[in-house]
């Protein structure tokens, strides 16, 4: 028997009754994630326009609040997307149904309800004093993870329940290399969230811990998480060899933690931490692109080895988009401003926003979308999603193109604005208050902001088409899924 056939995930259909609770639950998470993705883009369009028309919705929906909704919606939709991905893969990987499925469904509704309440409070209570009561009830004031304390505690409880569901399913079913890495990573991911709940009135200390969540999430635990999802996705779409994929995963994880943990120092340059962070942060974060190169090589190698023949073309295309997006958005765009000598000028400018957009979209949005395509394929009855789709796959191809062109275009526009801003505000004028405003009015800066909107609308069009495609793809398909012959090692 070949190795792939011995691994039941590669022949999951044999044990699958087609109605697994975890996979059903994953569809709930994916739906909630897509609603929040749409909200993210809607609020993104508003704040992008407010850069050009500062009076827009003034005192109705302030920039600070709309921006907060834009980035918090992103964090939450990506987390919900990841939870969906894990619920989607856990049963195939463990070879059994989800343990504690009822609890997991209740958990979903509690989490979704809490998110809705938090956003409603953001929108209804936009201004007011910042005090202990507001930290508990309204807003904690930590960028990206602004949720008030009550919601923080609720999120921790929900994550613990999720962790129980996943770990218990593997324990009662079967463990694998991928699931071992995944579960250890989930422990780290949840534990780091606690660092963002610590309250101190000292802004340097506060930032010090806050970065433990933001940096160590996106540059360590989330990267490992998507490494696991990618490994599994390649086995699923291509029939890639499990032993090879798992070996890559171990190498990538070792490198990721090797550079990502001390790479944290690139956020400690200017917040009042000791000077040695300049060296540590500069050195280790400069190494961070290396594992991302490995991930591109890994994905392209596997896809090439299988002649790009896949059981799900849209999913494979988005997995490849992830490998490149992660490399360029995080690796290249991150590397550009990670040395303290450069960061001195670019810190907190549109340069940062340029990197933030390409990295979050390229590394994380893409892979969630890939797994959603896999999930939809199964939900529509394990239908054909390889080449020769009706209409030549018009909707998935165009949504892929519009979303990627849109985000890439915004990234370049922001980079141009950021370049001008760093030059005028920092290099020429020396970071004064008036220099900040002078830079915002330079022609290149303003034109960058205009182009960002052009590409923002393209992104929005891509999203609309994506949602339409997800709602319709495979509905009228009669051909069964293409079965792949595993390629021996
Ligand atoms: C997928 C992984 C990554 C994501 C999602 C990401 C995202 C972000 C975001 C959103 C910010 C802005 C934070 C803020 O609001 O202040 C940021 C800052 C930064 N990132 Fe990344 N990043 C990633 C990986 C990397 C890598 C690999 C490097 C270096 C090689 C890097 C270097 C930096 C630096 C130096 C800053 C600080 C910019 C400043 O001083 O304003 N990032 N990142
Ligand atoms: C219609 C498309 C979008 C528009 C017009 C838009 C616009 C904006 C604007 C105006 C900001 C505030 C920047 C500032 O404070 O100067 C922002 C921040 C941000 N957006 Fe978007 N956005 C869009 C889509 C996205 C997407 C698809 C992602 C990622 C999946 C994303 C991730 C972020 C992040 C991470 C930040 C914070 C960046 C930082 O702190 O430097 N946005 N966006
Ligand atoms: Fe970082």
Comma- or semicolon-separated keywords:
binds protoporphyrin IX containing FE, binds fe (ii) ion, globular, disordered N terminus, 74% helix, 0% strand, 489 residues
Task: Provide a compact summary of the structure.
This protein has helices spanning about 5, 20-50, 65-95, 100-125, 130-135, 150-170, 175-195, 205-240, 240-265, 275-285, 290-305, 315-335, 340-345, 350-380, 395-430, 435-440, 445-470. The protein has about 500 residues and is an all-alpha fold. Helix 2 packs parallel to helix 4, helix 8 (about 205-240) packs parallel to helix 14 and helix 14 runs antiparallel to helix 15.
Describe the fold and architecture.
The chain contains 17 helices and no strands. The chain has a domain at 19-175. The radius of gyration is 22 Å and the shape is globular. It is mainly α. Helix 3 packs antiparallel against helix 4, helix 3 (63-94) runs parallel beside helix 14 and helix 6 packs antiparallel against helix 7. Bound molecules: protoporphyrin IX containing FE (HEM) (2 copies) and fe (ii) ion (FE2). The site of one protoporphyrin IX containing FE (HEM) has 24 residues, from helix 8, helix 12 and helix 14.
What secondary-structure arrangement, pairings included, does this model have?
Layout (H helix, E strand, L loop, with lengths): L2 H4 L14 H32 L10 H32 L6 H24 L7 H6 L11 H24 L4 H19 L7 H36 L3 H22 L12 H12 L1 H17 L7 H24 L3 H7 L3 H30 L14 H35 L4 H8 L2 H30 L17
The protein binds protoporphyrin IX containing FE (2 copies) and fe (ii) ion.
Shape: globular
Largest sheet: number of strands, sense, barrel closure: none
Distance between the termini: 13 Å
Count of distinct strands: 0
Q: Order of helices and strands, N to C?
A: HHHHHHHHHHHHHHHHH
Segments where pLDDT lies below 50 for 5+ residues? 1-14
Strand content bin = under 5%
What percent of the residues sit in helical stretches (DSSP H or I)? over 70%
What ligands can be seen in this structure? protoporphyrin IX containing FE, fe (ii) ion
Gyration radius from CA atoms, angstroms: 22 Å
- Please give the count of helices: 17
Q: Can you give the mean pLDDT?
A: 93
Q: Helix/strand-derived class?
A: mainly alpha
